[in-house]
Specification:
alpha+beta, Arc Repressor Mutant, subunit A, three-stranded antiparallel beta sheet, about 30% helix, about 25% strand
């Protein structure tokens, strides 16, 4: 999954998450993001950052990142989403799960997704 062009930021620093990201949880896009497809690029534009300031630098997704993003609709757990992607891309589910957990942490840090309660 790609991030901002030319930016090498650690998204895992600080205590930005209230709870641990797990494969059993459900996530969905937050209202703090605009998604655009321009040409062959799929962009997420944050409307705010985790510190509350504006940061409208687009977050460019590669093919895998886009597939993960599109699977984050709140209806399925990360594990279920990973299983579907593993079949689609003919990759071991464990590989997708590892990549997905890292990507979800980044998206949470940027306030681009939210955890969905499944009560």
């Amino acid at each position: 999954m790609q991030g901002k062009r030319g930016t090498q930021t650690s998204f895992f620093e600080g205590d930005f998450m209230k709870s641990k990201v797990t494969l059993e949880k459900h996530y969905a896009a937050s209202r703090a993001a605009i998604v655009r497809e321009i040409g062959d690029e799929f962009m997420i534009i944050p409307l705010e950052t985790s510190s509350g300031g504006a940061d409208n630098e687009p977050y460019i997704l590669n093919r895998t990142g886009r597939a993960i993003w599109e699977g984050l609709d709140g209806s399925k757990s990360l594990k279920d989403t990973a299983a579907g992607l593993a079949a689609r891309f003919d990759v071991a589910p464990e590989t997708i799960e590892t990549d997905m957990l890292e990507f979800v942490k980044k998206l949470l840090k940027m306030n681009l997704i939210v955890e969905v309660s499944r009560s």
